[in-house]
Each structure stands twice: as structure tokens, then as C-alpha cells.
Amino acid sequence: MRELVKFSEHIYCLQLSTNIGILVSKNKNGEDELHLIDSGNSEDDAKKILSVLKEHFPSGKLKTIINTHSHADHCGGNFFLKKMTGCEIMASQGEAPLMECPDLEIGLICGSAPVSQLKTPYFIATVCPADKTFSNSQTIYLEQLKIEAISLKGHYIDQTGFLVTDTDGKRVFFAGDALSGRNVISRYWIQYLFDEEQTKKSLEKILTIKAEHYVPGHGLPVESVEGLVELNLLALLETENLIIEETKVPKTQEELLKALADRNDISLKLSQYMLIGCTLRSYLYSLANQGKITFEIKDNIMKWKAK
3-state class of 3 per DSSP? Predict the structure, then answer.
């Protein structure tokens, strides 16, 4: 998939495996300036982006990459694009340190330095520090565009969504991985997240954001977001209920991971084992904080049980 979607005169989306926002503004000299929301997973994605920019905006110069968060599939093209164009990199105050030290991403997933098989671009982006940081309440003004940074924590530590308003009043909301497309949810029912409770709050916040188009981090954009938010919430709540049901008989985390995979017909490979295992911990801690489950450590074994 490599389709350029035009939402308004100055707002576009390039649909790669990660959706890339393309914003076009003119400087005071009347020259086109290009700004990206996210950069894809790798140098290959970065090359595709440059090819599309050259084809569709031949007189434009890439000025800025604004990242929703620091996962490698959203900032992995930063280094190459900056090297080729000299563009500026921007990230939120909480995500910028992770972009400067991407080993932290895989460290958070594993809880330690990883086994060598996980040291891949999928998990570890090329180091590319942010040139500027912003707070998740800040508004960035370009000549023709207003970009409002909106906190959408949960999927990751300080993730940001961007509400972009064009001169004609049309608004496009780039949600990052706070929102997944219907086609993605149907394929990956259990998705990585850092904080399950914050993820639900961010989905509820998306319902309050008024826009003509909503762009998930992965999957197809939509014009009405209520149904897609409902589907994303359903996936979270179904997994919560599954965990509560399974913990009616106390289980270790390893036993719960097997139950989750078995009941969702997932054949775990190493990367899924690590990602879903980390996500399971997020659910367990969230459910424990809500008082829905608890844990016990007996004979040096930790087991989770429903209340």
C-alpha cells in the first residue's frame, strides 16, 4: 500500500504500513515547505516518502518531522530523512529521550537488555535526537495550518495526536497509535500498549475531538470516528474480561499468556511473545489498580487471581 490521500488543500496522508501525514505550507517567499507527521519504520520507508514528495511536491522542501511517539515504526525514517534533507525533528517532551536512546524501547519490552534476535529495526530505530520538543497542549502555527498537540498517553509513555486545521476550516486528526484502523484491529486483536487504563482514557478523549477526517496510526482513515473508537475499546474490554475469567483459577503470567494466545488463535513467535507478554503485564497491573484482580506470591511463585 502506497497511496497518497488528499484531505484538503494543504493536508495529505501517505498510506504506508504506518500512516504518514504530509502538511504543505508556503513560507514568506511563497516557497512550498513540507512537514511530516511520523516517518515510517526504516530507511526503506524514508526513501518511499522522499520519492512521493518529489513526485507530488517537486518544488517543496522538507522542513520538519513531527513524531507522534518514539516507537521505531513511527520514527525509524527520521535519521535518513534528516541526513538527506536537513529537516528538523520534533517530539514530545516525554518521547524525545526515547528517540535519543532507542535501546530503551526494547528494554521496556523485555525488562532488560534483549536477546540478539530482537535487535532489529522493528524494535530499535536508528538514533536521531529531536531538535525541538513540545508539550502535549501546545499549538504549532504554520503559514496555512494550525497544529494542536493533544496528549494521547497509553499506547506509549507520552504519545501525541495532532489536530491539523487548514485555512478553509477543514480539520484532520492524526491519532498515532491511540487508534487503530478496523482492518488492523480485525487482524491484531491484542495490540501492544504501555498503560491499558490510559489507553481507554485516550480513546474516550478522541470522541471529543471534532474533525472531518481521523487518521489512525495504522489502517484506513475514517470520516466518523465513533464506530472505530467503539471497536478499539471493545478489543480492550474483551481482553480484560478474558483475563478476569482466566484468573478465577489463580495463574502465573506465563500461564495467562498461553491462555490469551490459545483463545485468540495466536501462534506465538519471539516478537509476539515479547510484545503480547509486555502488553499482558499492562493489563494485569491496570486491573489490579482497579481492584478487579489481585496477586499472591507463594513458594516463590507469583499468581494472579480474580477478586
Answer: strand
Q: What is the largest CA-CA distance in the chain?
A: 72
pLDDT band for position 27 (cuts 50, 70, 90): confident
SS3 content of the chain, % helix, strand, coil (to 5): 35, 25, 40
State the average pLDDT over residues 82-88: 97
Contacts of 269 (CB under 8 A, 6+ apart): none
Alpha-helical regions (H) of 57-94: 72-75, 78-85
Partners of 6 in the β-ladder: 12
Distance CA 157, CA 50 (A): 29
Among 155, 145, 98, smallest CA distance to 275 is for: 155
The CA–CA distances, whole Å, from 274 to 109, 110, 169, 185 equal 7, 7, 43, 19
Q: Cβ–Cβ contacts within 10 Å for residue 27, how many?
A: 12
- 3 state DSSP class of 90: strand
- Cα–Cα dist 46/17, whole Å: 12
CA–CA dist 54, 63 (Å, integer): 14
Q: In sequence order, which residues have a C-beta less than 8 Å from that of residue 231 and are 6 or more positions away?
A: 182, 185
pLDDT tens-digit map of 244-299: 999 999 999 999 999 999 999 999 999 999 999 999 999 999 999 999 999 999 99
Cα–Cα distance for residue pair 301/62, rounded to 1 Å: 54
Between CA 195 and CA 126, with CA 105 as vertex, the angle to 5 degrees is 145
The phi and psi torsions of 244 (rounded to 5 degrees) equal: -60, -40
pTM more than 0.90:
yes
The helix/strand count (H/E) of the chain reads as 10, 14
Q: How far apart are CA 192 and CA 93, in angstroms?
A: 22
Query: Could you tell me how many residues make up the chain?
Result: 307
